[in-house]
Amino acid sequence: NIEALKIKGFALSKLENSSYESTSDVSSYEIFKQYHDRNPSNPHGNYIMASYEEDNDKKIHFLRNGIIHEKELKTNYRFSNGNYILNYLYDFLAQVYFLQGKIDKAYETIDEFIEINPDDLYAHLNNLEFSLGIKDRGYNNSLERESIKRSVDKLKILGQNNSEVLEEVSIYYRRIGEF
Q1: 121: Cβ contacts below 8 Å, ≥ 6 apart
Q2: Which of 45, 84, 126, 134 is within CB 3.0–4.6 Å of 36 for a Cys-Cys bond?
Q3: Phi, psi (degrees; rounded to nearest 5) at 26
Q4: For residue 62, what are the β-bridge partners?
């Protein structure tokens, strides 16, 4: 029900003032579907609908809609870990493209987000983590891309006091043979 979702940390301020079903036999998917149907331009709603969707093309549809609407609305919704909704939308979209085997499209998606937010620590960190992750899956040239080198340089500045960031940067240097 709605109260249980709010306890789990979902920000559903508009949900409270709407006439949604809130009986315990209604699934969280059904609640979010009702919310999305009434607020289709909500970026967070599109993100959630993509997470429930099993069809990758439909996921892409929701994620692209979320990106378009966040760019228009500029909600700057921020998750508890510091990431903005736009970062999540782009990161999730890149993952979907990766799962479809569209590696170049995944990288284009990440690069597009970095172009929009060139000083966003998490954008660069996601770029590096994505490349390290697909290197582990056999994509050997993933760490040779120029955008990775730029992200590592940016992370050394933006994340100089962040141990998670510094660990990822050190992993990068070990993987390319420069310790």
Answers
A1: 155, 158, 159, 162, 165
A2: 45
A3: -90, 130
A4: none
pLDDT level of residue 16 (50, 70, 90 thresholds): very low
Give me 110's structure tokens.
């990440």
The Cα–Cα gap between 58 and 80 comes to 27
**Residue type at 98 in one-letter notation:** F
Q: What would the pLDDT profile of 103-125 be if each residue is shown by its tens digit?
A: 889 999 999 999 988 998 988 99
d(CA 152, CA 166): 10
Q: How far is it, in rounded angstroms, from Cα 29 to Cα 48?
A: 9
CB proximity list for 173: less than 8 A, separation 6 or greater:
179
First and final C-alpha spacing in the chain: 51
The tens digit of pLDDT for each residue in 46-84 reads: 999 999 999 999 999 999 999 999 999 888 888 887 778
- Which segments of 7-141 are extended strands (E)? none
Distance CA 73, CA 65 (A): 12
- Sequence-distant (≥ 6) Cβ neighbours of residue 174 within 8 angstroms: none
C-alpha span between 74 and 81 (Å, rounded): 19
